[in-house]
Design brief:
419 residues, mainly beta, 4-stranded antiparallel β-sheet, 4 helices, 12% helix
């Protein structure tokens, strides 16, 4: 009997030690972005593996230092394994209620006062292959969904749908769906991330951004370098305008975009702004004006992936086969050199973060940070980086002037001043 007790005790100690080692490994792996966090093998494993890893290592709260003081990060794990990944969006629905739409169409409401999630009767599951963005028009009670859909076997399309929405007693209901627009088919290894895609409402019309979409290599160039962003006959690599007064008629507003992960309107509603991921570095912040060409793939501040990290090799000079002829290209307002994979942005307006007022705040994927740009004397100035340690997919300003982040780790993070 005594021997059995000793063995049982040793087994328990061993199990506890192993659990501690596993926990310690996951904590360090998350910081270092090792398996199963943001690694190649982690991307092909079932979602619950990464979800479990994030759930195990999520802090309830975290304090970080920044260039304008200490910040508090309040973590809230979205209750779905499908929250892990590369799509979806968040919106301020009403005062303290944040609407979360996942890549697969699941929808959640988050109450920032009770700090609890709830689900309503509506969801968009099984409607789309990947939801890239959503948009709430509170004046018209319209809910827009920009998504990728599967068509004809391995082909895909980008699709824009509009719903009427109702919100009452913590219940969010979608009704009267209407498809406004479908892109042409992409059959050459289309990628969800290559579709990019954001929605904005500007000057009483809707706008969307689209990426290069096709992933097949053309002329032995890299996969994101194809003829579509420069072609007026293609809707890929564009900002597209939808005329609300003319039955949402679609027209190309600008062209020459690679992977525009951000599209938003300035806080005074006078400017349409876009952030997009460059190739190896060269992420851009652009002022969008009708009829302009923003260069991709003819010109970029970045470099080819096959070039060295620090390279003096020029961007390929002869890209005439991709439509790079004698045309003028618009220069970005600002560009980032190292690879940060810029995502959505917004212009902060308010007194809560007084040092951020009127600044542009961007999320990032590879950069796992927020990047702050301010306009000073007619120039865009880099004000600093706020290290979050998570891939930030979407970012919004909350009703009480805090900042909410939706991360690829499946968390909703509320950023506030340290108490």
């Amino acid at each position: 009997m005594k021997k059995k007790k000793i063995i049982s005790t040793l087994v328990i100690v061993l199990v506890i030690a192993l659990l501690y080692l596993y926990f310690d490994y996951f904590q360090k792996a998350r910081v270092d972005r090792r398996w199963p966090f943001n690694s190649r093998i982690g991307q092909i494993l079932p979602g619950f593996v990464k979800y479990w890893g994030y759930s195990l290592t999520n802090p309830k709260e975290k304090t970080i230092s920044s260039f304008f003081g200490n910040l508090n990060l309040d973590y809230h794990q979205i209750p779905s394994t499908f929250a892990i990944g590369g799509g979806g969006a968040i919106e301020v629905l009403e005062d303290n209620i944040i609407l979360i739409t996942l890549d697969n169409g699941e929808m959640f409401l988050f109450n920032s006062l009770t700090k609890k999630f709830s689900t309503g009767p509506s969801n968009l599951m099984n409607n789309y292959a990947s939801i890239r963005d959503t948009f709430l028009n509170k004046e018209l009670f319209e809910f827009l969904v920009l998504a990728v859909v599967n068509v004809d076997g391995d082909c895909k399309q980008i699709k824009l749908d509009i719903f009427k929405y109702y919100f009452d007693d913590d219940s969010f209901v979608l009704d009267n769906p209407k498809t406004v627009w479908n892109s042409e088919k992409a059959c050459d290894m289309p990628t969800h991330s290559g579709a990019s895609g954001r929605i904005a409402y500007f000057q009483d019309n809707y706008f969307i951004s689209t990426g290069y979409f096709n992933g097949m290599e053309y002329f032995d160039l890299e996969s994101s370098m194809n003829p579509f962003p420069q072609s007026p006959a293609s809707s890929f690599g564009k900002v597209i305008k939808f005329d609300r007064m003319n039955e949402y008629e679609a027209s190309i507003f600008t062209l020459g975009h690679r992977a525009p992960q951000g599209l938003f309107v300035s806080s005074d509603n006078t400017k349409l702004l876009l952030s997009e991921i460059g190739p190896k570095g060269g992420d851009e912040f652009n002022l969008i004006s009708e009829g302009l060409n923003y260069g991709w793939p003819c010109r970029t501040p970045g470099t080819l992936y096959r070039y060295p990290s620090v390279s003096t090799i020029p961007w390929p000079e002869d890209l005439s086969m991709l439509g790079c002829l004698d045309v003028e290209f618009e220069e970005p307002l600002f560009s980032w050199g190292p690879v940060i994979a810029i995502s959505q942005g917004f212009q902060y307006s308010g007194e809560y973060f007084e040092n951020l007022d009127s600044s542009f705040v961007f999320g990032s994927l590879a950069g796992t940070s927020l990047f702050v740009i301010a306009s000073e004397d007619g120039k865009m100035i880099d004000k600093g980086r706020i290290k979050i340690g998570e891939r930030v997919r979407d970012i919004i300003q909350t009703y009480d002037q805090k900042i909410a982040l939706y991360t690829d780790g499946g968390s909703l993070i509320i950023v506030s001043n340290e108490l």
